[in-house]
Amino acid sequence: MLPSGSPAVPDDVNKRSKQEWIESAVALKRERFEIAGALFDCPDDALLSQQEVIQKVEAYLGLTTKEETVNVDTTE
Question: CA-CA distance, 68 to 36, in Å (whole number)?
């Protein structure tokens, strides 16, 4: 019997592989290429939680936006 308050499901169950996250991009309201770009540096066999993927996507998209802004403002 499990003590009250402890999860019955291990943490690994809520994690998915890089390919599974790319294929389920719609669930995160993102495009597949956005997920693929954000997870580019992750090993193919790495298991990632939804929170980890969201953080990586936000960082990836934030970086892209910042670079575009910098490039637009340059006078070169």
Answer: 19
Strand positions, DSSP E, 1-76: 16-17, 47-48
Residue-wise pLDDT tens digits, 31-66 = 999 999 999 999 999 999 999 999 999 999 985 444
Give the pair of three-digit tokens for residue 66. 């910042």
How many residues make up the chain in this entry?
A: 76
| 37 Cα distance to chain centroid | 9
Question: How far, in Å, CA of 50 to CA of 57, rounded?
Answer: 10
At 5 the pLDDT is 56
Look at residues 50, 54, 24, 27 and name the one whose alpha carbon lies nearest to residue 38. Answer: 54
Q: For the chain, what are the domain ranges?
A: 15-73
Mean pLDDT of the chain: 80
